[in-house]
Design brief:
The structure is a single chain. With 342 residues, the chain is an alpha/beta fold. β4 (157-161), α6 and β5 form a beta-alpha-beta unit. α5 (134-151) runs parallel beside α6 (172-186) and α9 runs parallel beside α10. Helices cover 38% and strands 13% of the residues.
Length: 342
């Protein structure tokens, strides 16, 4: 049974246009860097966003659903490095809410100086300069140390994730060296979990020696499992797709779990929309439930999982919106099996 059944609070402190397009009116790009440079009053807009995108009532909703943890994406610029807006006071407020409602939290450093992946979620689309300058690595570790010093001894601090989704083009040895340096800096500060993303190479054989040869304690390997980005998955009948989850992916991840605890830091019900073209609403919902149940059945064998994400602020993309999926009966409303009725 998964120890952590969780949800990401994505799009809150790291902007992604697809998650709340209205924020990006009159902005020429999809990430928070261009938002910060081009918006006329980014501070006021972000303050309103932080106050209203997710509220304390949403955390009560998660608790009522039997969710026991959240993954909280945080940018490296949380202290307000130019051109970004400071948000440390808001982080303190949100973590206070999580403590109040007894929701454990995994703080996920979601961006890094120079950008680690070139994605909108890395803060600078199309740029991967993080590995090019040792100063970027040092600043990243400094930010991890700051966050761990600030929150790492709190009662519901689950742990910290060293960096979200470093790009698969970055040398894996360099990433593993960064992870080792991060671990050595953070372990004296907290007994909490320290998580490492797989850099989109979860089956690389070097991971086994990395975790076995280093004297790690309380670490986890973070894999992100999506089925909407691989063109092959788009053409599979539902039964074959479920077999991919329950056989291929399950076998792969369990093999890793034999030498290091695995968390699925991100997953969703996102699928290629062509799959639903000839289905009515009932049939669509039925397929989504089957897709959800197969993933949950597999991920329950691991240390934990975190759905991406709690809220998507647009009529489309329901398959990524935990709150809507629960309210519409696609996902369970009771992950603790105690008769919860949010």
């Amino acid at each position: 049974m998964a120890q952590w059944r969780g949800v990401n609070l994505g799009g809150w402190f790291v902007l992604e246009k697809w998650m709340r397009p209205s924020l990006f009116d009159d902005v020429s790009g999809p990430d928070e860097t261009v938002f910060s440079l081009e918006k006329k009053n980014p501070g006021a807009i972000l303050t309103d966003h932080w106050a209203n995108f997710i509220k304390e009532a949403d955390l009560r909703f998660l608790k009522a659903c039997g969710i026991n943890a959240v993954r909280l994406p945080v940018p490296w610029w949380f202290l307000g490095e130019k051109p970004y807006v400071e948000r440390l006071a808001w982080l303190d407020r949100i973590i206070g809410w999580l403590e109040k409602h007894e929701l454990s939290y995994l703080i996920d450093l979601h961006t890094a100086p120079g950008c680690q992946n070139g994605f909108d979620n890395g803060g600078v689309t199309g740029v991967i300069d993080w590995p090019k300058d040792p100063k970027n690595i040092n600043v990243t570790i400094e930010k991890l140390v700051f966050l761990t010093n600030r929150y790492g001894k709190n009662p519901f601090f689950l742990g910290i994730e060293a960096l979200n989704e470093p790009h698969q083009s970055i040398d894996l040895g360099m990433i593993q060296d960064f992870y080792l340096r991060s671990y050595r800096a953070l372990r004296p500060l907290t007994s909490g979990l320290i998580a490492f993303h797989d850099a989109f190479r979860r089956e690389d054989p070097s991971w086994k020696s990395f975790f076995k040869d280093n004297n790690f304690s309380n670490v986890a390997f973070d894999v992100h499992l999506y089925y909407c980005f691989n063109p092959h998955h788009a053409t599979l009948p539902l039964s074959d797709l479920l077999n991919v989850i329950l056989e291929e992916t399950d076998k792969s991840v369990k093999a890793i779990n034999d030498f290091v605890p695995v968390i699925v830091g991100e997953w969703s019900l996102g699928l290629d929309e062509r799959r639903f073209q000839n289905l009515d609403a009932f049939q669509t919902d039925m397929q989504l439930r089957a897709f959800a149940n197969a993933q949950l059945a597999s991920y329950e064998n691991l240390l934990g999982w975190f759905f991406w994400s709690y809220r998507i602020d647009r009529a489309s993309h329901r398959s990524w919106d935990f709150s809507r999926l629960v309210k519409e009966g696609i996902l369970p409303n009771d992950f603790n099996h105690k008769g919860a009725k949010p």
